Amino acid sequence: MPYGPQWRLHRRLHTSLLSVQASKAYRRLQDMQSKKLLQDFLYTNNFSEVFYQYTSDVMFTLAYGNGQGKDGSDHQRLHRINEMAMFILKTASFGMTLLDRFPFLDMLPHFVMKWRRMAEDLHYQVKGAYIECCRSGLQSSSWNWSHAAQQRSEAKELPWEDICYSIGELYVAGIHTTKMVLENFIEASVLYPDMVDKAQAELDSVVGTDRLPSFDDMDQLPYIKALISELLRWRTISTIGVPHTVIQNDEYMGYFIPAGATVVANQFGMNMDDTIFEEPAKFNPDRYLQNTELPVSAFGFGRRSCPGSRLAEGSLFIVISRLLWGYKISSSKVNKNLLNESSSIPREATIRVRTPRHQQIIEKEWADSKIDKIDVLGDIRRGLQSNNMAGN
Ligand code: HEM
């Protein structure tokens, strides 16, 4: 969607649902879902699946509430969308590269451009699914983004279908990004055991073994915070950023940039710039402790920067601090010779609880937190109401 009044309305909706206060209120849900994640790791090493469960549960619950449609149909519908989104991420980048090189391809008739027809079909399917899910969200008695959006002024200025699409966009945007960063955390943990030792020493001294780390500990855990910044730098999620269009003629360092030109931020290049990051291929959280001014560009730039960054940071903090607190992470597949290569990603890892005491706490916390999601959403609504932004 190009920059303009419509885009501004969508953006306003997104930023209101993901404001500083709102993102703080959502911590209640992240707290509960991360306890479930810890419990799940007692029985499986399949970290990709557990991370997907966590991110999709958090996003689904915020977007559509506690209900899941008839027989879980909403979840299944959205699961298919997620698979399609991953397909698009892979194929669209290929299509876009060709189009950038040979713009005349864009003028070919539709029946020749198979990928374009596929994309249009997909768009209608996705839109239909988002509208269905929004309908379930509104039928649900619990607080959720569908209810909250309905109360906002943007819902009077945009067609309801567009609002549903906007909420669906948030849902999808929040799942794979956060999951990918968490997978990279597993990679870093098996490749850099010294980092894990340092993080666990910090957690043991601040938190001890009688309770889980919580959001209240954040300021006392500078190494964990530095580790998350380094994780976002070390493995760039969106290597060339999202393409932006220049809306008016501009000049940068003597170069003329005409209106309409596409500008792509070389995020990978920035993150690997050895004039800013010494030995950039190395995973080294200490660099962010030694220089707190070091940039983190993972969430993009300017008007279109990621509106979900605070929610994402909350998830990364609570999941990573709790995983490190409770588990040892290793892999027999690590090839130390590949330490500096991006191909070193271990697709398998062994995730074992650190001690029987840690297991006891993990099980107790999960058993105690088994309250209904409706209660959690009620807490979120009350938290937002005290800031006058609940929506229902
Ligand atoms: C670690 C996790 C995440 C990363 C690394 C990430 C990164 C990004 C990046 C690089 C962009 C493009 C910014 C630009 O164009 O300059 C973006 C856009 C966006 N992100 Fe995120 N994101 C994450 C999590 C989330 C979450 C949790 C949500 C929703 C709750 C979200 C919603 C969005 C939306 C809606 C946009 C489009 C913004 C626009 O075009 O106006 N993201 N994100």
UniProtKB/TrEMBL annotation:
Cofactor(s) named in the record: heme
Entries under Pfam families matching the protein: p450
Cross-referenced PROSITE patterns: CYTOCHROME_P450
Keyword terms: Heme, Iron, Metal-binding, Monooxygenase, Oxidoreductase
Coiled coil ranges: none
Family note: Belongs to the cytochrome P450 family.
Annotated protein name in UniProt: Cytochrome P450
Species, as recorded: Paecilomyces lecythidis
Lineage, broadest ranks: Eukaryota, Fungi, Dikarya, Ascomycota, Pezizomycotina
